[in-house]
Design goal:
Elements: H1 2-18, E1 21-27, E2 30-34, E3 43-50, E4 53-58, H2 68-73, H3 80-118, H4 126-162
Antiparallel strand pairs: 1-2, 1-3, 3-4
Helix pairs in contact: 3-4
């Protein structure tokens, strides 16, 4: 059972990291595309893109979402090298996401500043200050959350790197 779960994780991680699986969710005349499995009330088509080939599968069987973060923290039967590689990949992804959040923050702050300018408001306007604090708080929370995850992953990586492999018994010379 553990091997099955690990196999699913190993298959799901590269898929989710590269975003080469998309779900087409249909309900009546409405079509929605998502990177996660569709809700129960929608019919689901799984669209996979790999090596330049796109395949669409009518998959009303529901995928059980696996949290890749938890899979990385719980080392089961993944080799040490593969686990380190997965941890490094997730850390890199989270750092990229933090960079993206900073770009979004700058964009939203610039938009807010433009609105303030064109509405002829001062920088000490209470509404402007409230929106500014709201934007900063939202992005600070996202960044802190990612930094916490990065720290946990880094700690786990350090723990794995300091672990020594179990002593192999010397059965050739049983003296």
């Amino acid at each position: 059972m553990a091997r099955l779960i690990v196999t699913l994780i190993c298959v799901a991680l590269p898929t989710s990291a590269l975003a080469n699986t998309v779900y087409k969710c249909r309900k009546d005349d409405k079509v929605v595309f998502s990177q996660t499995a569709c809700p129960q009330e929608y019919s689901q088509h799984k669209i996979e893109y790999q090596l330049g080939i796109t395949t669409e599968i009518d998959s009303d069987k529901r995928d059980i979402p696996v949290d890749p973060f938890q899979a990385l923290l719980n080392k089961q039967t993944i080799s040490k090298e593969k686990l380190i590689q997965l941890l490094d990949g997730e850390i890199y992804r989270l750092k990229q996401e933090n960079s993206y959040f900073e770009i979004l923050r700058a964009s939203e702050l610039q938009k807010l500043e433009r609105n303030r300018y064109w509405q002829n408001r001062e920088k000490d306007d209470p509404e402007y200050i409230a929106k500014l604090k709201d934007i900063n708080t939202r992005f600070d929370e996202l960044t802190v959350s990612n930094n916490s995850a990065i720290q946990q992953l880094s700690d786990r990586k350090a723990q794995i790197l300091t672990e020594t492999p179990p002593e192999e018994s010397n059965e050739e010379n049983p003296q």
